[in-house]
Amino acid sequence: MRLVQFLDTDGKASVAIVEDAKTLAPLKDVASIVDLAKSALAEGINLIAAAEKHKGDARVDYDEVAAENRLLPPVSHADPAHFLVTGTGLTHLGSASARANMHTAANKQADETDSMKMFRMGVEGGKPAAGQKGVQPEWFYKGDGSVVVAPGADIPSPSFALDGSEEPEIAAIYLVDDQGTPVRLGFALGNEFSDHVMERQNYLYLAHSKLRACSLGPELLLGDLPSHVEGTSRIYRDGKVIWEKQFVSGEDNMSHSLENLEYHHFKYDLFCRPGDVHAHYFGTATLSFADGVTTQDGDEFEISSETFGRPIRNRLKVQAERPVKVRTI
After folding, report:
1. Do the Cβ atoms of 87 and 93 come closer than 8 Å?
2. C-alpha to C-alpha distance for 47 and 55, rounded to whole angstroms
3. Which string of DSSP letters, residue by residue, matches 242-284?
4. In this structure, are strands 168-176 and 182-191 parallel, antiparallel, or unpaired?
5. 55 in the Ramachandran plot: left (φ > 0), alpha (ψ -120 to 50) or beta?
6. Which residues have a Cβ under 8 Å from the Cβ of 301 and sit 6 or more positions away?
7. 0.70 cut: is pTM over it?
8. pLDDT over 70 at 88, yes or no
9. Who contacts 68 (Cβ-Cβ below 8 Å, separation ≥6)?
10. What local confidence, expressed as pLDDT, does residue 105 receive?
11. End-to-end alpha-carbon separation of the chain, Å?
């Protein structure tokens, strides 16, 4: 089952089951997927059962909702500060070469970079046996819920950015329950969107390069993630495709297990605060930047996968410069 969050014709936040490519079945008395999850936890049932319980008789035209820009990200929080957006890198079996090339110094070989070393650590220890702890992955912070843009919305790139380009990824969505236990709600397609030129200058700039907007959705896949996921990442310029490439994800194509990535995120107490929502990106091996593409203001990113239903599309919008002034009192 896949769910979406959207605004109804009165502007009210709603949730619906995706019946097919054209039809949404709105849920009665449910304003958000987080509210649905809280209800399911209270009743001791899973999200699929909870959604079926609230399913109404009405049907909505999916294309109409999308065309009117009424789709919302598949997860939200009333207070964006309690929605944490993070991710992992060097997790996919094809992810090391482009990163290594980005970080290779003139006096080093590509296979001696820190990125390659971390990738090899993941290959050797990222899928531990049951009950054991594997090697920790690269980890980064993107921001709080305010950085997540809706499907179809512009994805802003700050005036000081050196680059703004896509990263087609899968993100897992979590709610921390009242006991402080993370509960996975499902998975969504995402554009993790980063500044690769800044990162290339020095890998210690990775943290800066990740502090950017991102997008998720529009659909939340409930249940387990298939071990093999295929998709396509495209860039449109003036309505024409200027770059297109297939990508794969899922554990069959990763050097880390999902369980290991989750452990190394939620092992920190500050990420187990009851009521918080998390979107955690799992990395990629496919980048237009690695193929020499330089994005421009107005370019449109499209990331699609049959596993996740409707593609996610966002247009790049370079922001005007904002003066930074610090006051003293």
Report:
1. no
2. 12
3. EEEEEEEESGGGBSS-HHHHHHHHHTSGGG--TT-EEEEE---
4. antiparallel
5. beta
6. 155, 166, 191, 193, 233, 234, 235, 236, 313, 314, 315, 316
7. yes
8. yes
9. none
10. 47
11. 54
